[in-house]
Structures are given as C-alpha cells and as structure tokens.
C-alpha cells in the first residue's frame, strides 16, 4: 500500500481533526439495522457480536447516523460497547428523516439538527460526540444555516469536530468558510468516482475522506481487474477493493459495513495486503 509520513498521518493512521488518531480502516454501522436500513436487526446477537469483534480487531472509528433504523444503530453501539474504550471515535450524523424502509428525506433545519444531536448524545451515552456530520444538504434550507447550527453545537461542547456528507465542492467551500470541518463523507469506490475532485480537495485541506459504499454495494466483486488481482494475492475482491482505497489517498478512511462477523473479519484482513505500483495503476483505470 502507499504510505505517507507527512502531517498527521503515517499511512496506517490518520489524525482526525489533528487530535483524534484513528486507524484508516473503520467500521460503518448502517447495515446493523433491518432490511432497507429499517427496524431491528434480523439477528440481534450477531449485530452486537460484530461491534465487539470490530473493536477486538483494532477498529477505533465507528460511523453511524440517527437515521439508521432509525435510531437502531446508535442504540446497538451503546449496548455493545459502552463504556467505550478510551481510543474509540464514534462518528454519527443528523439531517435525514425516515418514512419507511429505503426511504430518506432531508431535514436541515437548525432546530431539527439541535434536537437530533441531543437525542444522539442520549442514545450513544456520550457527553460529547467526537465527530458529528451533517448527513445531507436540504434544498429547502440555506446550507450555511444548517452548518451554522453545527458550529453552535460545537461551541456549546456537544460535538468535538464537524463533518459533512453528500456534498459538492461548492458546499464544502461554504462549510469551510463557516466553521472548521475535519471530514467529508461521500460515495466513492472503484466503480463510483464522482467525488474525485472532492477527494483531491480533501488532500489539499488535510481533511479525512470517508467513502460510503466503498465496495460499490457488491459491484467491485464483479470487476474483472479486481478479480484478477485478488486471485494473484489469494484474496477476495472485497479485500482488493479496500486495499486500493487505502492506497488511493493518505486521507482516505474507508468504513465498510456488514452485519456478519465473518464478513467483518474478511474486510479487516485487507489491511495486510500490499498492492504493487503496477496493480494500483491498473485499479486506478479499472
């Protein structure tokens, strides 16, 4: 893998916000809830086991949101892991409402974000959320008003660092002009690279980039280049896709999610894969 020894990261870790060092392969807790990211998990015991096993494997960044379930993912994290290890960074998000399985609706009103943050603090049993992210811009609410509320919550001590999600470059610029921002969470993977320019901006600003759906919802496994390189490494396509993300940028913090301990262990094993420069170049063009 490509490593970097400048600034706040050494290749395997990244200093989130400059003061929260985390391993560069985290865990996304979205899929711990039921089908359509709605309701309770099909196997409650397995969901709890996944979270505990993630920490056992060295994961120190867990990403969630109040809309996952809704509320289910945050509750499960507290049930499985509280009291939390001192090095564990929990990132959550607010700004999306749920009307049913697979249904998402933006709500960026400042009063909603304040209530959502307070409720996430309660569910997660935290006094301060390490990373609170605005889940998605709301076209009905001026973007700077939504971000301004996050800045207020930070000033009140309820959140430590602010992140944004599902934004474009202009919106990131607006956020940075309003308040310090430490991370961007957009969709990105071998088959989904619409946020390439945003990733470049994150490198310039030394912001973390958390790609959601980093395995392209299974599509990476059907990529012929990924499959061939996986065979050469005696690895799975999922592992190669994650290894490529780690090699793609020193600010990349993939957060693959699963509801299976076996899949979790498979994903985490990607940390030990070293891609050659030639393989990285092939995957860059895949």
Care to describe what's here?
- This protein is of the alpha/beta class and 286 residues long.
- It has one domain: TIM Barrel (Alpha-Beta Barrel), CATH 3.20.20.100.
- The chain is 38% helix and 16% strand.
- It has a seven-stranded parallel beta sheet, with helices on one face.
- A hairpin with a 2-residue loop joins β6 (96-100) and β7.
Short description:
Strand 10, helix 6 and strand 11 form a beta-alpha-beta unit. The chain is of the alpha/beta class and about 290 residues long.
Q: Helix and strand layout, with pairings?
A:
Blueprint: E1 13-16, E2 20-23, E3 27-28, H1 44-56, E4 61-63, H2 72-81, E5 89-94, E6 96-100, E7 103-106, H3 110-124, E8 129-134, H4 143-155, E9 159-165, H5 169-178, E10 183-185, H6 196-205, E11 208-209, H7 224-232, H8 237-248, H9 261-268, H10 277-284
Helix pairs in contact: 1-2, 1-9, 3-4, 4-5, 7-8
Largest sheet: spatial strand order: 3-4-5-8-9-10-11
The average pLDDT value, as a whole number, equals 94
Which sequence of SSEs, written as H and E, runs from N to C?
Answer: EEEHEHEEEHEHEHEHEHHHH
What ranges have pLDDT less than 50 throughout 5 or more consecutive residues? 1-10
Keywords summarizing the entry:
alpha/beta; TIM Barrel; seven-stranded parallel beta sheet; two-stranded antiparallel ribbon; 10 helices; 16% strand
């Amino acid at each position: 893998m490509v490593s970097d020894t400048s600034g706040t990261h050494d290749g395997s870790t990244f200093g989130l916000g400059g003061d929260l060092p985390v391993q560069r392969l985290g865990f996304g807790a979205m899929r711990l809830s039921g089908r359509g990211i709605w309701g309770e998990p099909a196997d409650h015991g397995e969901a709890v086991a996944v979270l505990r096993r993630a920490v056992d494997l060295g994961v120190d960044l867990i990403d969630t949101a109040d809309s996952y379930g809704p509320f289910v993912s945050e509750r499960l994290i507290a049930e499985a892991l509280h009291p939390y290890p001192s090095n564990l960074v929990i990132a959550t998000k607010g700004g999306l409402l749920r009307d049913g399985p697979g249904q998402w609706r933006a709500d960026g009103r400042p009063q909603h974000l304040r209530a959502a943050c307070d409720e996430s603090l309660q569910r997660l049993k935290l006094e301060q959320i390490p990373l609170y992210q605005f889940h998605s811009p709301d076209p009905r609410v001026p973007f700077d008003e939504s971000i301004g509320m996050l800045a207020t919550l930070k000033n009140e001590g309820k959140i430590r660092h602010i992140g944004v999600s599902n934004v474009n470059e202009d919106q990131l610029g607006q956020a940075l002009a309003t308040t310090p921002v430490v991370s961007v969470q957009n969709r990105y993977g071998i088959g989904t690279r619409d946020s390439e320019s945003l990733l470049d901006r994150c490198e310039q600003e030394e912001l973390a980039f958390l790609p959601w759906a980093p395995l392209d919802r299974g599509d990476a496994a059907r990529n012929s280049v990924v499959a061939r390189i996986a065979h050469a490494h005696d690895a799975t396509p999922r592992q190669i896709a994650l290894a490529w993300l780690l090699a793609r940028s020193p600010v990349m913090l993939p957060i693959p999610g699963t509801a299976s301990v076996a899949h979790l262990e498979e994903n985490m094993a990607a940390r030990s894969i070293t891609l050659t420069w030639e393989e990285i170049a092939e995957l860059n063009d895949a």
